[in-house]
Amino acid sequence: MSASDVQLDRQGRLRHFLTVEGLSRRHLIEILDTAESLHGVAERRVKKLPTLHGKTVVNLFFEASTRTRTTFELAAKRLSADVITLNIAQSSAVKGESLLDTLRNIEAMQCDMFVVRHQQSGAAEFIARHVKPHIAVLNAGDGRHAHPTQGMLDAFTIRRHKPDFAKLQVAIVGDILHSRVARSLIHALNILGVAEIRVVAPRTLLPFAVESLGVRVFLDPREGLKDVDVVVMLRLQKERMEGALLPSEPEFFERYGLTEERLALAKPDAIVMHPGPINRGVEIDSRVADGPRSVILEQVTNGIAVRMAIMSITLGNHAHPAGENL
Amino acid sequence: MRTVIRGGRVIDPAHQIDMVTDVFIADGRIAGIGRPPDGFSVERLIDARERVVCPGLIDLCARLREPGHEHKATIASEARAAAAAGITTLVCPPDTDPVIDEPAVVEWIRRRAEAAGQARVLTLGALTHGLRGERLAEMAALKEAGCVGVGDGGRPIANTRVLRRALEYAATFDLTVFLTPLDPWLGQGLAHEGRVATRMGLSGVPAAAETGVLARDLELIRDLGVRVHFCRLSSARSVELVARARAEGLPVTADVAIHHLHLSEIDLAGFDSRCHVCPPLRGERDRDALRAGLASGALDALCSDHQPHDPDAKQAPFGDTEPGISGLDTLLSLSLHLTRTDALALPAALERLTWGPARILGLDRGHLGIGAPADVCVFDPVREWRVTADHLRSRGQNSPFLGWDLPGRVTQVLLEGRVIYEGGQD
């Protein structure tokens, strides 16, 4: 049984949002178009829509997060939902409560949507398989597996700058091995029909047979960045040095860090993206991160609209609890 | 009780017997095949028409969870499940809690198994104290207490100096050493390092985590004259390495777990924690090579690698679950299933479940020669059953084969002439 079987209902509509893999172009375009229509809400005097009025959204964060958690909270609030956030990394898990017990307890509080982040790949799918049928589950990042709302907000940001996916060459640079962001973005861009996706990294940061995901591999950024339209830099975690994946941050920056000189290899109108939080001087130079080609902060803003879109779509498609009149 | 098993297809791989005939049992031993011994009077008749009669199965690796993890299973519960599955001898690896590194533990397990009165339970002793890979365990005393071999209990010894000395010491007492080749560093991971793990974002265990250590071990034992049995090989290249070593005359044998012949990395889809095993399920090419290795005899034995779990152990995101499959109930049926789909004849499959493991253990069992202990399994090879939780007699319900339709229902099982299981009519 694949994730598609869990996240789609019988009509093929999204009931959970666990992974981009296996979705159709139609699903992705629906999300992007809905996000586009919601994008203006934040510029209004009253930044709220009644879409999720009376619904309760629970952010279940088993792993620390600031940006993702906050933008999910804001997205839910702008749709008029009631929102609570539980940082379980510091509570139940420490007390030895099992994940299923935690779920049952929160379910008993009559919630409608779980937004889940967990350090284990497959955790969101596990939760989706075990929650009551009226609850929608959104994956806010599971291990190295998927971060589908990030993948979609990246695709949304790209489309706002470069509307014709079929002409685009996109380079993703850095720690692909541990990156759920990279996996989700690769799936999204392939489904949307991008001309070429490149991954640029030393071999230690590339998963086995990464080309099977539908990418071209470049070990040398001088070739990998040549004439691309979009450069996506990934965050490099400090633990990677201890795991003997890299010798040092300076050596990585020297070879793979995005500097102005390296960016000059890309197309003149290329945009620079990063899922954040950025490590200045490790994977990206401050002049690039803060420069005119950077759309890094736009990604954060777009994240709210995209998450609003995904929340409205999944809850809109959802079976209502027994007894409730439609 | 003098027993005749009448009219069955008797398959005794050790003696290349495969014919419809009668088996006569007296005083707990095989007394005759085809012809009764002089003066034999039948006290009990087992009708085996349309059935296969073979030696009782010998399972080289079954975790019984006792002592130490009685909430998962007990010696009694698993020995009973084994008997109902046609298995008359279970080999318990030393990674119990406490570890089987002193005679008292061996003795304790033997008494518990005797009290259960079901399948026989044999023990492997630990190579090192506490399986910590530092100090040698008292192997001579363990052998005297009844251990049929010594092993690393699935926790490979990283220090090659300790390993070499442990091998030499075991050889001193003519003990067969059971090793699980897995590199302690490269072996850390959740799934086979392949396309599936890449896609699912699971940390990968490359085949080299197994083959690297296997190749090292084969070099280490070259001049030691020690018998080594390699447990649970999972990759195509491992089969080649063992076959080549044997061709060169090294005294090595190897086994494979039945689930590695039926499943591959693809079965992890949906993050199915029932398929979380160590070593991991590998590619389809590896699975096919393991099947071929079993058919050719490069792999000597087929085992269940039985690891029963409580439900909580598997009810979590994949990486938070415990590895292992509950395998006793399906060992025979999955083996029969192979004879339908593969170039493996029924007698050869039964050989890997009886005489093959008996030879590895140096036991006078696993065959139906005159005078041998009458451990016998009678089964209907054709009748299918659907694997459901209700059918699993093991306390562990963690089987990825739930829902499969499999051939083979065990009808009678005898341990030294005594019927320890009768059923299969449900």
Chain pair forming the biggest interface: A-B, 29 and 24 residues
> What do the pLDDT scores of chain B average to?
96
The description of the largest β-sheet of chain B is: 8 strands, mixed
By CATH, the architecture of chain B is named Alpha-Beta Barrel
CATH homologous superfamily assignment of chain B: Metal-dependent hydrolases
Topology of chain B as a string of helices (H) and strands (E): EEEEEEHEHEHEHEEHEHEHEHHEHHHEEE
Q: Which architecture of the largest domain in chain A per CATH?
A: 3-Layer(aba) Sandwich
DSSP, total strands of chain B: 18
Q: What name goes with the CATH superfamily of the largest domain in chain A?
A: Aspartate/ornithine carbamoyltransferase
Oligomer: heterodimer
Distance between the termini of chain B: 27 Å
Radius of gyration of chain B: 21 Å
Radius of gyration of chain A: 20 Å
Instruction: State the share of residues found in helices of chain A, binned by percent.
Output: 25-40%
Helical content of chain B, roughly?
Answer: 25-40%
Basic shape of chain B:
globular
> How many separate domains make up the residues of chain B?
1
Any low-confidence stretches of chain A, pLDDT <50, length ≥5?
321-326
Describe this structure in words.
The complex is a heterodimer of chains A (326) and B (426). Chain A contains 14 helices and 9 strands. Chain A is α/β, with parallel strands linked by helices. Chain A has 2 domains: 160 residues, Rossmann fold; 150 residues, Rossmann fold, CATH 3.40.50.1370. In chain A, β5, α8 and β6 form a beta-alpha-beta unit. Chain A starts with a helix and ends in a 10-residue tail after the last helix. Chain B is α/β, with parallel strands linked by helices and 426 residues long. Chain B has one domain: Alpha-Beta Barrel (TIM Barrel). In chain B, strands 1, 2, 3, 4, 5, 16, 17 and 18 form an 8-stranded mixed beta sheet that branches. In chain B, strands 6-7-8-9-10-13-14-15 form an 8-stranded parallel beta sheet, sandwiched between helices. A two-stranded parallel ribbon of chain B has the order 11-12. Chains A and B meet through α1 and α6 of A and α5 of B.
